[in-house]
Amino acid sequence: MSDQVSEFMSNSSIHGFKYLVGNERTLFEKIMWFGVLLGSIYMCSLWIISAYQAWEENPAFIGVGQAPVRAWEIPFPAITICPQYTYNKYSAYRFPNIEELRQNITTLLDLCIYFQENNKYDNIDFFEGEPWEKFLTETALSPNQFILKSFLTDGTDTMDVGFSTILNKWGVCHSFNMLDKADLFRNATHIFQSFGKQNQVSYWSFDQNYYKKKESVYPRRLKTLIDNLVVDLESELDYIACSSSNKYYINLHHPGESPTPGGIIAVQSGKDYTIWIKPEITMASERLRSYSPSRKKCFFSDERYLQFYKIYTEENCKLECLANYTLTVCGCVPAHFPHNKTTKLCGRNRTGCRQKSERTMARFESGLNEDPVCNCLPSCNSIVYTWEVETRKSDIVHRISVKVQYKNAKFNVLERNELFGDVNFWASCGGILGLFTGFSVLCLVETIYYLFFRLMYKLFKMLWKKLHLKG
C-alpha cells in the first residue's frame, strides 16, 4: 500500500486521476484516493484564496530605496511668513470705514482683545467677499514693510527673491517658492486679484520632479549643501499689534500645497534662527499606475480630481473637503478656505459652527468616525519637509535673521513598489498546485486532452463502428 501511495503522490494529477478511475482498483482504494484528492484540492483552494486576498488587498509595499536622492533633485520648500499684527495704522486714512468693517471678519484678528471688547457686530453671520478683499488690500502690510532683505544662494549665484501675498489661517502672509495660483488652483477657485502671483512652473512636475536638468527652474532648488535662503525681518513693527511683542509665524511646506497649521515655526525679536531642513521623500513605481487607488492605497497627483486644486495631495484634499463640509453645515466658509466667488464668508456668529465642523473632520481623520466623503488617501509621491531649529542671540537691533538650508546633501528615500503583481500571483498559484497535486501547465494540456479530445475520439469511434456495422 505504501508503494501505491508513493506512486500516486509522485505522479501528476492527471495520472492520479487515471489511477483513481481504473477498473482494476478496489472500491476501498478508490474511496481512499478520492479522499486524498479532495484533501489536496481543499488545501490548494485555501492557499490560493489567501494568495488572492494578498494580491487584491496589498499589491504595494513601502521599503527603503536603494539609492539616495540629492538635494538638487527635489524642490526647495515654500517659505510662508506671517507677521502677527491687526492692521496697518496708516490705512485708516485711506479707508474711513475700517473700524466698522473689521468687526465683521473672522480670522486670527478676532483673537485680539480689542475686537473681543467691541461686540456691536457679534450677530453677523455672513459677509460678502468683495468688501473683505478691499479691506485686505487696504490694510495688509506689503513685504517691503517688514522684510529688510531676502536672498537665495544657489551654487555660485546669489539672487534677491520676492514674496507673493497669500491668505491663510494666520491672516495675510507672504510666500516664497510656492506655485503660482494659475498652476495650483482651478479657474473656479476665487483668489484675490493681487494674491498668489508667483513664477510659472518650469521643467518640473509633481510626480517626476526635475525631469530636465536646467540651470533655471521653478520651483527653485538648491544645488549644494552650503546653499541657503536668508531672510532678514524687522523686529519692531510700527503698527498696532495683537500682543505687546512682535513675532512672525514661518511655515515650511511643499510648493504644490497650501500652508497648513502643522508646519509652524514662531520667531521673535532678539534672536536669529537657522532652520535645518530634513525632507522625508516617498517615491512610487510607475508600475502601480495600473492599480486602482483603493488597492495601492494612494493617489498619483493626476488620479483624483479636486474641485479647487489642480494638483492632488493629501493636504490639499483635506483642506478642500473641510471647506465643502463647512459650507454644507454652516452655509459659509472662512475667508482663507478655498471657495468660489459666490460663496458666503463666515462672520463671527458662525465661529462655533466652524469649530464644530473642524472637530468633526478631525474625528473622521483619526478614524473615530467613518469618513463617508473625503477619501483623502496619501500621495503616491510625496515630500514632507521636517526641520530642526537653532537659535542664537541677535547682534543687530531691529532685525531677526532667518536662514534656511538643508541638513544633508543626500536623503534616504522610501519607495512604494509592487509587492504582488499579476505574474507573482499566477506563479504562486502554480506553485501551490504543484506542491499539493503535482499540477502544471503540461497537466492542464493533458487534462484538456483527457476530458475533451479523448471523449470526442471515443464518441466518433463508436459512431464509426455503428455506421460501419449498418453498412
CATH superfamily of the largest domain: Acid-sensing ion channels like domains
Query: What is the SS-derived class?
Result: alpha+beta
Strand content: 15-25%
Order of helices and strands: HHHEEEHHEHEEEEHEEEEHHEHEEEEHH
Low-confidence stretches: 4-12, 89-96, 105-122, 240-244
Describe the structure.
- With 471 residues, the protein is of the alpha+beta class.
- The chain folds into two domains: 2-58 and 430-470, no CATH class; 62-418, Acid-sensing ion channels like domains (Acid-sensing ion channels like fold, Sandwich), CATH 2.60.470.
- Helices cover 33% and strands 21% of the residues.
- The chain has helices spanning 2-10, 13-21, 27-57, 98-101, 113-117, 129-139, 181-184, 293-296, 314-330, 351-366, 422-437, 441-470; strands at residues 60-64, 69-70, 78-83, 126-127, 147-154, 157-160, 164-168, 171-176, 228-233, 247-253, 264-268, 271-284, 345-346, 382-393, 400-406, 410-411, 413-418.
- A hairpin with a 2-residue loop joins strand 5 and strand 6.
- Helix 3 packs antiparallel against helix 11 (422-437) and helix 9 packs across helix 10.
- 30% of the residues are buried.
